[in-house]
Structures
1.
Amino acid sequence: MNGLYEFYFLFLIIATVMMRMGGLIQLVIKGIKTTIKKIFIVDDNRFFMESLVFLLNRQNDMNVVGTHDRVQGVLEKIEVVKPDVIILDMRLPDGDGITLLKEINSSFDIPVIMLTMYEEHKEQAIKAGAFAYLVKGEGLDRLYQLIRKASKTFVNS
């Protein structure tokens, strides 16, 4: 019976040490700074854009710093908020995403992820300098992955 009590006592000591170590590990993990990716979204579908803002802001390392629903005025907004990544729709009410992509690339060193309903413009967008091309409806995890990858690849100028 003594051996059982010794085992139980030893087990409690080890469990307590492990719990404290776990707490210490958690503190270390929380102490590691996560770089927040600043995201700017250009899309004319208000419902889609607000949903995307909500979903991206739920990620610990992402923050939507601005949105716009048309070509006109977007470059000025991008200049002000200085995002790390831009998510751009292909079709906008006053222009197209490819033309805007070229303007963004000539003015800023910011990766642009094309997120659109149209599969047929992928090659054209990549040739125009898009970091990636995603069709709406693909998994969110893919978008999260691309945002993280894009923000590591580029440096704001």
Note: Residues 23-31 have pLDDT under 50 and may be disordered.
2.
Amino acid sequence: MNYIPIEELEVYKLAMEIGEEIWVVVDKWPEFPKKVVGAQFCEAGDSIAANISEAHGRYHYKDKKNFCFFARGSLLESKTWLKKSHNRKLVDDETHTRIHDKLKRCHYLLNQYIKSIGTSNDGDSKVQEPDALPYGLPPDFDNLNDF
């Protein structure tokens, strides 16, 4: 399999975009919600890409998968903070929908990336990068409710 630089992985690019968008949104909040909710929302959003990066830099497939699982946990935490922000009227409907849709897409791509990582049954301990980019979305992706 060919090595793919981190900057070319669609899941990483989307995770970086999500972290930046969350930052821009939270930066406009008043001090109290920014401190209480915003800091954790930003940390969770940034942690998605950070853990994907750390996974990508690991040699052993178990390490790679483990850091991807951390990234997925941060993604789900980001969904929680997005919902809390929306419930508390810190995020409007349009922003909520836009970020939620990006998180949903990132969740799917991250699961595909995790599936692409080799296992002990593969006979080696390296990540099995797919030959084609990006980790594609199925044609009926918008109708999936599992994410």
Note: The CA atoms of residues 118 and 127 lie 5 Å apart.
3.
Amino acid sequence: MQRIFMWHWVLAPMTRTLVTGTFLFHRTSAMNIQITPTARERMQSFLQRHPDAPGVRFGVRRTGCSGFGYVIELAEERRDDDQTLQVDGVPLIVDARSQPLVDGTVIDFQRQGLNMHFVFHNPNATGECGCGESFTVDAPHD
């Protein structure tokens, strides 16, 4: 299926680096997102406790000192611009604006002492802030 995405880009506002523009993304294949067994177990446990949820929403939002932060939460609904991927039995819902930024990401879930969190290995990320909460991407290419 072919889709064209328009993205208005603003990068790294906290570093006073401002890059704006409109880019076209031409998608000719399905997205590739992978999840580790521990991430799958965590997502499935959320979905089992909330059987009305259509899936797990995965995407990005503007935040942090590097520009983008990951969002992973139970989806309340499917929107017209969403793409739903079945990944190891977990329905992942990704909005159109996030798709080019998260394509190719591997989602893991790690426990370190009393802390538990999702970890993202994103080949599109070209930099991260020091705390690891946000990331930067270069302008996309075809």
Note: The domain at 30-137 is CATH 2.60.300.12 (Hypothetical Protein Aq_1857; Chain: A;).
4.
Amino acid sequence: MHIIDGNRIISTLVTESTEDTSAKIRVVITDSPIDITVSGTFVEACIQCSDFVLVFATDDCLFEEVLNITLVDFCNSILDSASLFWPYNTGVFAISGLIEPNKVVFEFLGDKQWQIEVLDNPTIYIPLLSEPSGSWRQFKFKRCFRISRLASALGTPSNS
């Protein structure tokens, strides 16, 4: 697991956001097969985890920032995605650390710490009951990564 050097990431705005849809960007990672379109306007980071890449992109919307998280494989298939946002809250993204073999800890939405765990196999998921507040996903019964909000800098998941 490693953070992909920002010099290897090329992003191009494909469509701008409208009242009904979010912006889309094309993300290309040089020296890799990754060439995919995801939600967002600015790539914050790309992290390679085994045969997958987590793409973190923001919408660049002042006072209501959205973090779009997309898991892609090297065949350029979107395996899973989620968004973090809270109305009237600014979001500054920062990676806090990588926990081998499959966890990313980061900050977003003020001082909140979050954790993404990339799962070895898709897992059954109960929509609306399995996610912390502030996160949103499309209605599906399988997930390839898990989101949790951390209670402390020690990396302990909170109950919400």
Note: The mean pLDDT is 87.
